[in-house]
DNA sequence: TATGGACTGGACAACGTTGTCAGAGATGAG
DNA sequence: CTCATCTCTGACAACGTTGTCCAGTCCATA
């Protein structure tokens, strides 16, 4: 079984001793192709790139040599020479999260249309790792960056990069200390709509369980919740609001607190999909039917009983929009950062329509 | 709004006219740093790479110049010189599919420990796109490739690449026409176990709904199903087996066929998660309680009623194992391709334990 | 036959980095 | 004081590609 060494410095080219390029069992270069075809180096380049100025006859000789040697153009060298890398870096929280993987896919699609490849890295909500990843991408001279900011990250570290021309778009959460293109969901409005929906079903005591308030989306959703409550003239009891890490045990504790005591809530607004999943599991375990609206849609939401009422985001839309902003900059657009908010959509499936007990 | 041009050639560096490197608002190079610090070029290189042989005093002058100019080493050039790129390419079917995104995350983690960055691309089950992506990664001189073969792809196109030293690992499905490291789930065994479980619950007429038989995993799972049936001495009626595209409408039709007529099946084995989701939805719509076992676990499987019995794969394990094989090769391991099969696990949650009607 | 133009092919420098090697000072021994 | 040794530094070539530019060839025309 392979071993598992610690990386000295993550994201740095490993320091192999000895002469360079040794580990490749010799890669033929254009020079080799030229020698074999009996033509000049530049002629090979022309053939490879489909440039005009080569006789059909010569071109064919070159082609033959290329396939015979198994030549493949070295894009590293090409990149070095041309200055554009046709690649984009994507830093997000966790590619295994369906929300981010949908988003990633949308970015990939748009990138493909523009001929770009995609580097992806997960920050795990760690600002240091976000920075390492983003800067490693910059060192590779990606043309652009798409970043889901980690909680608490200060993005001024990107200033030299952006000045140097790396197009940068932030998604899901705004950057800190920087003006840049940003694509967000209308988190507060969505949460307000979700909460208002519960109120319209007759609920007066509604709990909010969300992620840490230093995560922008979590804070915004909490704000929307409070606004909706205030708008309806409803008080918010301390025991109803829990914000912090979303590990299932934490959610269970928060849920137990919210649903007990003299001020027991009759409905639940869950700040993200992890909370929703944990809460639904816990309610199932407790065998309690409590009204619930979650932020973020889930694949099986319609198959639960009752179906899960959610405030759905549009991850693919966010990704697509972000990528479009990015490539617009790469195509020459300049100007101050644009901020686009995509609406969230209330999807009623039953759990949010349970009346107060 | 940004425009959406068609890419001339996907994954090729865009042809910008004019002198190269123009779009960067000048990136300082080591030469610039050297000039500013009043030292030689190589000294800057030494400082940047932490090589010995530089006085603390000189090093500090260089550091100052670096931060003043916002210098960042150009890894493209470094790569060109050193020959190793510290990057890995991952080609899979669809990064938005939770199975593949978990897998991707695991590969990313191992890569990070080895100091490598990850290129990701989705083939959408199109062999041509798979090849385009893989070769584009090779042109960037990734050190290694991890590939989920698209249905019907012939992988001999990779021979020159592998000969040239690009470590290659196939996952989820074996390569065609090539000997290489491969990490698979024990698909047939898993499907056999799942089917046998239904049989042990008293079912005699069990349907199999799966993906196209030219997808290796689908074929293997079908084989496992047939083996289990044969082992129990049970016939397999034609109307029970449907293999093909997994769009919901197709699944609905197949399911209707399997559950009707004189040979109506009493239980269902679903060949992958997309089929399972479609089938569960359809059964719900028809309001029928039919025994069901699915291949692949689903996030909410325990929250359905009844809970979903599945044959669970271990995507993270597959990804981790594949990445370990890959880096073992990069660390010098040679020899013929290794083939590792990871077991699938039967998880009983209720839907597979419904008795025959 | 000479001349011009169109076309083809190749020599050369450059992209930004790193490996090699040799030079410049400083230090110590004889 | 000289020579050897050691430490630090920098000049230079090379990685594989592409842009520039010039030289040669071929044909048609004056």
The second-level CATH architecture of the largest domain in chain A is 3-Layer(aba) Sandwich
The largest β sheet of chain A comes out as: 6 strands, parallel
CATH superfamily of the largest domain in chain A: Response regulator
Helix content of chain A: 40-55%
Based on helices, strands and strand pairing, what is the structural class of chain A? alpha/beta
CATH fold annotation of the largest domain in chain A: Rossmann fold
Kindly, what is the distance between the CA atoms of the first and last residues of chain A, rounded to a whole number of angstroms? 58 Å
Poorly predicted regions of chain A: 1-8, 14-24
Q: Biggest sheet of chain A, strands in spatial order?
A: 2-1-3-4-5-11
Report the β-strand fraction of chain A as a percent range.
15-25%
Overall description:
- The structure is a homodimer of 357-residue chains.
- With 357 residues, chain A is an alpha/beta fold.
- Chain A has three domains: 30-73, 434 Repressor (Amino-terminal Domain) (Orthogonal Bundle); 85-185 and 316-342, Rossmann fold (3-Layer(aba) Sandwich); 187-313 and 345-353, Rossmann fold, CATH 3.40.50.
- Chain A has helices at 30-37, 41-48, 56-69, 75-82, 98-113, 127-139, 159-163, 187-200, 216-231, 248-258, 273-286, 315-330, and strands at residues 87-92, 117-122, 144-147, 167-171, 181-185, 206-210, 241-243, 267-270, 291-295, 309-312, 339-342, 345-347.
- In chain A, the strands form two sheets. Chain A has a six-stranded parallel β-sheet, with helices on both faces.
- In chain A, helix 1 crosses helix 2 (41-48) and helix 1 packs across helix 3 (56-69).
- The longest helix of chain A is centred in the N-terminal third of the chain and has 16 residues, at 98-113.
- Strand 2 of chain A pairs antiparallel with strand 2 (117-122) of chain B.
């Amino acid at each position: 079984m392979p071993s598992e060494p610690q990386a000295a410095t993550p994201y740095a080219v490993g320091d192999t001793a000895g002469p360079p390029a040794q580990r490749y069992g010799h890669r033929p270069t254009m020079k080799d192709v030229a020698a074999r075809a009996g033509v000049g180096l530049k002629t090979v380049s022309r053939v490879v790139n489909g440039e005009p100025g080569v006789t059909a006859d010569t071109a064919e000789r070159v082609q033959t040599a290329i396939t015979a040697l198994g030549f493949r153009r070295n894009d590293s060298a090409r990149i070095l020479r041309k200055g554009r890398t046709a690649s984009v870096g994507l830093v997000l929280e966790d590619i295994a999260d369906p929300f981010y993987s949908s988003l990633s896919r949308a970015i990939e699609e748009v990138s493909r249309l523009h001929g770009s490849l995609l580097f992806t890295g997960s920050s795990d909500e760690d600002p240091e790792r976000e920075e390492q990843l983003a800067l490693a991408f910059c060192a590779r001279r990606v043309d652009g960056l798409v970043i889901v900011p980690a909680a608490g990250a200060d993005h001024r570290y990107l200033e030299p990069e952006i000045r140097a021309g790396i197009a940068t778009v932030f998604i899901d959460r705004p950057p800190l200390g920087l003006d840049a293109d940003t694509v967000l969901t209308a988190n507060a409005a969505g949460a307000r709509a979700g909460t208002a929906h519960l109120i319209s079903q007759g609920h007066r005591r509604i709990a909010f369980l969300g992620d840490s308030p230093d995560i922008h989306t979590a804070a915004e959703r909490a704000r929307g919740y409070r606004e909706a409550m205030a708008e309806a003239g409803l008080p918010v009891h301390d025991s109803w609001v829990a914000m912090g890490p979303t590990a299932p045990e934490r959610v269970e504790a928060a849920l137990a607190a919210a649903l007990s005591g003299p001020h027991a809530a009759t409905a639940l607004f869950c700040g993200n999909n992890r909370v929703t999943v944990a809460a639904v599991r816990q309610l199932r375990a407790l065998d309690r039917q409590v009204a619930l609206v979650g932020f973020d849609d889930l694949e099986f939401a319609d198959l639960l009983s009752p179906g899960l009422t959610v405030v759905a985001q549009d991850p693919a839309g966010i990704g697509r929009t972000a990528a479009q902003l990015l490539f617009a900059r790469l195509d020459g657009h300049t100007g101050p950062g644009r901020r686009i908010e995509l609406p969230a959509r209330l999807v009623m499936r039953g759990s949010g329509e349970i009346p107060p007990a």
